[in-house]
Amino acid sequence: MKTIYEKPPKLSRRYLRDRKWVSAHIQELMEKYPDQWILVYDGKIVAHHAELGPVWDKADTLHLEQPFFHLIEGGVRVY
Amino acid sequence: MFTKVRLFWQTSFDPAHLAHGNHVKIIRLYVPICFKSPTGWSHAFNAIIDLGSPLTVLPKKIWQNIDVLANLSEPVLLGGIGKGVLMARLARIQFVFLDTRKEVVELIIKAYLAEDDTVPLLLGIEDLITQTRLICDYPKSKAFLQLS
Q1: B35 to chain A: closest CA residue
Q2: Consecutive H or E run containing B27
């Protein structure tokens, strides 16, 4: 089941806290989850995978409201 | 009258260089966005503002779950991303910048829809920097997009 937002959501305080949490732990996350998408909710890693699909699906399965998705780069990446 | 969209800096150090005592900063500038989808709005995503990318790039899972306003090309080879070469087609999409305020800022842009789900979500120059003013102050940890 998909999480449905009827209008563009405002950023929640929890989303901003999770963003800050990722920033504060980024070095550790780069070691643990290099070049993987992570799903963070309430300061916890809920899912991680090299592809976004399984991480997105996990968020939908758990009905998480505005979870924080982030691609952890394992090092310098030049796109 | 201008609308400001707040951006977020993230700084890390390349672990490979760090192991040899060299501090190589990886500095990224992010903006939270979400996309119009057939059922409402997508999840929020942290997009990288990438001034090295001429155009926006979307991972497969995102574009498979959003409204694509128009397909503009067949799949083409896209160089310089992922494992070096990537198939992607050009399309027109719609997204909104997310903020803590009620005000919604929406953009319609051209984007490459990647046939790959490991690539980052990049906001490239065309249709972003051409429609907004990017104000950056890394030493003060501030950055925003200004839209008229």
Answers
A1: A8
A2: strand B25-37
Range of the domain at B17: 3-147
- Quote the ipTM score: 0.91
Q: Is A8 in contact with B104 (Cβ distance < 8 A)?
A: yes
pLDDT tens track, chain B, 148 positions: 788 899 999 999 999 999 899 999 999 999 999 998 888 889 999 999 999 999 999 999 999 999 999 999 999 998 877 667 889 999 999 999 998 777 778 899 999 999 999 999 999 999 888 889 999 999 999 999 998 7
* B98/A10 touch (CB, cutoff 8 Å), yes or no: yes
Helix (H) or strand (E) holding B136: strand B133-137
Are the CB atoms for B145 and B133 separated by under 8 Å? Answer: yes
CB contact under 8 A, A67 and B32: no
pTM for the predicted model, two decimal places: 0.92
Instruction: For residue B24, give the chain A residue with the closest CA.
Output: A76
Total number of domains in chain A: 1
CATH number of the domain within which B72 lies: 2.40.70.10
